[in-house]
Amino acid sequence: MLQATTLYILMIACAAPGGVKVAEKAAPPPDLRKAAGFPARIAPPLTPGSAGRLSLSAEPDELVRVQALGKAKPFRKSGGRVAAGFYLSATLTHHSFATPFFPTNHASTPGNAGARAQTARGGRLIALTFDDGPKPYVLMGTRSGKGVASQSLLALLDQQGVRATFFVMGWRLSKNADEKCRQVDGGVCREAAEEEHRRGHEIENHTYGHGNFRIMVGRYGEAWVLNDIERASTIIQSITGVKPAYLRPPDWTIWPELEKKIEARGYHVMTKSTAVPPALRDVDSEDYFCAGRDLAKCPKPSDYDYVLRSIAQRERQGVEQHLLVFHELPQSVELLSRLIPELKKRGYRFVTLRTYMSLTG
Ligand SMILES: [Zn+2]
Q1: What percent of the chain has pLDDT over 90?
Q2: Which of 128, 159, 182, 269 is most buried, most CB within 10 Å of its CB?
Q3: Strand 125-133 relative to strand 349-351: parallel, antiparallel, unpaired?
Q4: What does the DSSP assignment read for 21-52?
Q5: If you measure from the C-alpha of residue 358 to the centroid of ligand 1, how many angstroms do you get, rounded to a whole number?
């Protein structure tokens, strides 16, 4: 545990173009603006070849990142020369700010400043979401009906201090499902959902029957699909006391007409569509392939690398907020036991979907 402290971030600019990150340091302030008197001040002002010092107060377990964006490549121990102005931004747990800083006579417009400012609002964020549960043996760390063992997902999330969001199938929460849940998933699904709720996780809507919308509309009509969604909400609300606000269509199959009708009923529809901003787009971990649905499609060399690569690719586009989609599978618990610590190291904070949306929306 870190003590409240003051960070001194020494910034030395040099001439190499394309630099991004200045410093990353675990620990930040209750209120950075108050503590450091923002907009951030660098003293003495940066001039070619000079260094600037920024001091920030910090609280335990929080995070400050300082970035210089633009054409200057920062944070070298030996000097150099500022080739152009750069953009200084810092992000912390609950607050963020971004302020342009241009050394005298070297001002220029930072290329990606708009995108950076937008993504910096909530800081580096991840909402972990899990589809297709609740599955007691995965959540509690027991064995499935077929004897497949799993580590406990809920224990892992507790250990890591992570609150997640579960998109459950409504039918699993009904009393009629108890026997099947015991036989297949090693326990009573409804009780596992109650445990999710008790431990502070969110439960959202993945429909009642998990039927593909295209097939279900063709077979039973649109009203049936809308009713299937409401049926799931009613049973989820009987556990959480709150009506779900988010719906993830099975297999992400959706089209604009139906989406509008679902949204008119008060749901935000989760999507992979490129029509929405990247931060609001589901990032598919493809974990289901690695759990046997189609092993040939399991990302190589591993799903762990695949998820980190996807995030790195988004970061290169200035996106630092990610909605990650997993399933309640033993493989995914193992994967996340390595992924969560690694992403924390990279400055990410894990939040529930509602919090994520309130910080990014
Ligand atoms: Zn699903």
Answers
A1: 64
A2: 128
A3: parallel
A4: EEEEEE---S-HHHHHTSSP--BSPP-TT-EE
A5: 24
Distance 215 CA to ligand 1 centre (A): 14
Q: Which amino acid is at 148?
A: V
CA 206 – ligand 1 centroid, Å: 7
Centre of ligand 1 from the C-alpha of residue 131, in Å:
5
Cα 288 to ligand 1 centroid, rounded to whole Å: 10
Q: Which pLDDT score, from 0 to 100, does residue 292 have?
A: 79
The band of 294, judged by pLDDT with boundaries at 50, 70 and 90, is confident
The closest alpha carbon to 335, from 125, 150, 88, belongs to 150
Q: How far is CA 246 from the centre of its chain?
A: 15
How does residue 121 score in pLDDT terms, banded at 50, 70 and 90? low
What distance in angstroms lies between residue 273's CA and the mean position of ligand 1's atoms? Answer: 17
CA angle 304, 157, 206 (to 5 degrees): 80
Does the predicted TM-score (pTM) go above 0.90? no
Cα 338 from chain centroid (whole Å)? 16
Q: Does residue 101 have a pLDDT over 50? A: no
- For ligand 1, the distance from its centroid to the CA atom of residue 148, given in whole angstroms, is 20
Beta bridge partners of 86: 70, 101
Distance, CA 137 to ligand 1 centroid (Å)? 18
pLDDT of residue 100: 29
How far, in Å, CA of 349 to CA of 98, rounded? Answer: 19
pLDDT at 41 over 70: no
Residue 358: what residue type? S
Q: What are the CA-CA distances from residue 107 to residues 70, 82, 86, 163, 332 (Å)?
A: 11, 10, 8, 43, 48
Residue 7 CA, ligand 1 centroid: distance in Å: 45
